[in-house]
Design goal:
The chain contains twelve helices and 27 strands. The chain is of the alpha+beta class. Strands 5, 6, 13, 14, 15, 16, 17 and 18 form an eight-stranded mixed beta sheet that branches. The termini are far apart. The mean pLDDT is 91.
Length: 473
Amino acid sequence: MTRVTSDVCVIGAGPAGSVFATRLAQLGFDVCIIERTRFPRRHLGESLSPGVVPLLESAGARACVEAAGLRRVHSVSTNWDGGPATRLDPGAQGAVVDRGAFDAALLAHAVASGVRVLQPASVRDRARTPDGWRLTVDADGAASELHTRFVADASGRAGATPGRRSPTGPRTIAIHGYWRGARLPDQPSIEAGEHEWYWGVPIPGIGYNTLVFVDGQRLRAERGTPLDALFRELIGRSSLMQECRAAELIASPTTADATPYFDDDCIGEAHIKVGDAALALDPLSSSGVQKAIQTALAGAIVVNTLLRRPESAGAARQFHRDSVRDASERHRAWAATHYATAASHHAGDFWRVRSSGAPPDAAAPTAVALQEHEPIQLSPRLQWVDIPCLGGHFVEVKSSLRHPGLDAPIAYLGGWELAPLLRKVHAGMTPLQVAQAWSARMSLDTGLSIAGWLIQRGLIERYAAAPRPEIRA
């Protein structure tokens, strides 16, 4: 049996696995990817939210995926809250892709960065060793023994390693099928039905993918109905295919689990989970690929810390666990709010259950119109807390700001560490004086922008008649 070694072994070559492996290779690690299927292969998650392209830019992979056929989205047809409408995006920040080509391009970028790939391959057995893991890998009919210091599970919903997944929403199943024909829509479409919701995605070079999201119990109740017939009936209730009656299905429709969850065991002493192996978002957000890449980039910094700064291992593991849990909760609340919007127009358990837990309506924070020469002070409700944060290449414990105007404590804003900046803010200064005090670090315009952001969220307030004690980190 061939013996192979690596610093890090990544199981799964989807966007999370490839980006994670690439970043670790850039940090100087010997990285090996194990992927069970040949590429290209068809995969859901073809709609990319606006944050994906900037993340790919930061990973150095933007050019390769654009060359693979990324199509920008200029508008989305909607029928969600009472009537048809068109949501325009003049900047075309979102995109749709053929995931087969997209994933293959990211994997090729990983290989170009020095990552080794075993494909098609699978892990037959694994065992912990004093210095990491011993994996028995079957690749193209040949077995090898891989010794690695660290294992990253990027295998998606399949889950290559044990875990404790906690659902964050009702069991949801996507029934989907690809169409070809004339007059197919060239932009995405989302629509709320009576007991389901629909998503249509034009895929470059393939056709039009239509998805119906239904409750898992409802699908079980329809067990006697052929899936093809059920799919056509459901699609016929929507407006997705109204303008393309002559279109035909490329292949029989299939189902996929779309239930959101997070994994309580997303990190350990010698393993980490990224992408859908760590958390799955409600499909309503169309942010699955974005979150996968975010967890991959952050996860690479976490592993770099664990392997090169073991004295900071506790902070690194806490950061990853907290960031996965917090992201899951934020997206759960967001999805519940949008389901509640549709629930106001559609009765039934499907919408009622999914809108459960939506945060109560809160008045939008009032923008504080402070002039550049008006005296200000730090908010008395602002607190400093020490939490693990991402630094350049390592997880570090930083003084962070907690305030009712923030969703979570923050240590950085626009890449600038806030603690040393706010130490220069004294009661009675003006926003202009604050920006000038920061001018040794940044331009005046950048300083005014950061000060304005802090003012808008209430961290900086109008100067009170009786000055309050200043906050010190």
